[in-house]
Amino acid sequence: MNDYLQKMRGHGQSPPRVSFAEVCWSWLGSFLGIAAVAILHYQLVDQRGLMLLLGSFGASAVLIYGAIRSPLAQPRNFLGGHILSALVGVTACQWLGTCPWLAAAVAVSTSIALMHLTRTLHPPGGATALIAVIGGESVHKLGYLYAVMPVALGAGIMLAIALVVNNIPPTRKYPEFWL
Predict the structure, then answer these.
(1) Are 41 and 154 in contact (CB under 8 A)?
(2) Which terminus, N or C, of the chain has the lesser number of Cβ atoms within 10 Å?
(3) In Å, how far from its chain's centre is CA 150?
């Protein structure tokens, strides 16, 4: 038991501070990415659905604009994680929607498993799967279209902005890999 508890102490150092320029580039990219997705999706889902969708993409923005070297932030993971998770979430909702707690648990856990198996692990993908289940009637009406629009389209827009903004300063390079 003591060995188990010792694991929780941690043993590494905190990450180093980033430069003010790095903070500014992360801010600019995330502002432009989220603004573009929000403007595009304003008419696609109701206000509640929009807020839930932006929650998922907000977490992605931290990775693709703020932690651009992370394997979890690379295009394969970003696009694959969201799209795969959206498909899983819609399927779980359609098959198990009469039992929302079960549909939610199946959607998130299955999306994690499939992201692992396909090497597309992207933590906000779990939220994308969950939104397909708990997102309300406007999201449920989209069915599998949810995976295309707003998820794939929104992710594509955010990726395009990440490619442009993250490569403007000579100190930043994105992506580290595509496949």
Answers:
(1) yes
(2) N
(3) 12
Cα 168 to Cα 142: distance, rounded to the nearest angstrom: 36
Q: Which residue has the tokens 């994680």?
A: 81
State which residues form the domain around 52: 20-165
Inside any domain, residue 92: yes
Tokens of 141: 């009406």
Distance, C-alpha 135 to centroid of its chain: 15
User: Does a structural domain hold residue 175?
Assistant: no
Dihedral sign, Cα of residue 146, residue 147, residue 148, residue 154: positive
Q: Which residue has the tokens 């992207």?
A: 122
Structural domain total, the chain: 1
| Residue with token string 């993250």 | 166
* Whole-model pTM over 0.70: yes
pLDDT digits over 80-110, tens only?
Answer: 999 999 999 999 999 999 999 999 999 999 9
CB contact burial 88-106 (16+ within 10 A = b; e otherwise): bbbbbbeebeeeeeebbeb
Rounded to 5°, the CA angle 19-164-73 comes to 65
83 CA to centre of own chain:
9
Residue 76 lies in a domain: yes
* DSSP run (H or E) holding 32: helix 20-41
